[in-house]
Design brief:
240 residues, alpha+beta, two-stranded antiparallel ribbon, elongated
Amino acid sequence: MADTYGATTLPVTAPSLVEAYTEPVGDPGLGVFLAFAKAVLEHEVGAAWEEVAPGEPLIRHARPHDPREEDFGTTSLPTLFAYRGDGKLSRWSDGFWVEERPITLLWVYPPAQAEKMTARRGVPVAIGRALHKALGPLNGRHPAWVVTGDTDEGAAVYGSDVLTHGGFQQLVMGTVRHAEITVGQAKYDAVTVDIEAREVLTQDVTLRGSTQITIRRDVTGSTTPGPFDQVILVPVPVPD
C-alpha cells in the first residue's frame, strides 16, 4: 500500500503505454473525470446533436490536456478536453491535508458553415445542464457510466461514483460559457465548463508505523478505550 492524494499514488505510479494518452502521469483522477463527463454528455446530448449534425458524433475524441498547448487537429473535432488549473494546498486540521485545484472541460465545435451553426448554439446550455444533473442531484453518478468490475451495489442502477473512482472529495460546477480558442492562427468555437475539485491526502500508516493517542472522555478509570473516547493513529517516520 502507499499514500494517496486524491487518485494519485505517492510515490507516483506511471501509467501504462496504453493508458498514457488518456491518463496524465501523476493525475489519474483527471482521466477518470473526463471519461465520466464523456459518458454523461453522450447519453444526455448525443441524440439531439445527431439531429443537427447528421453523421457527426458529439465527441469524436476525449483528451486530458489543453489543446492550446498540445497537438491539435481539426480532423479530430468535435473533441472534449479536460485540463487542470493552479492548485491551492492547505491544512484544514491535524492530519487533514487538502488540495483544491480546478478542472476545465472544453468541448470544441467541429468546423461548419455559418448557416449550420444557428441550430447548434444551444449546445452550451445542454452541456451545462447535463453535467449539473450528474454532479448535483445525482451526486456524481450517472447510469451511462459504470466502471467495469465496480462492486458498489448501486452502480448497476445509478452508475458508478465518480468521486470514489476519481479520488475526489468534492466536485462542484461553476460557470458554463461559450468560448473561442485560438490554436496557431486559427480560431474555434467552444464551450467551457469550470469545475472546482477538492482532493485529500490519505496516509498509509502501515508504511511508516504509527503511535496511538487516546483522548479520554470515559471517567470510569478503565484502561480500555470507552465508547466516548477518541483514538487517533498518528503516522511516524520509519528510519531508513
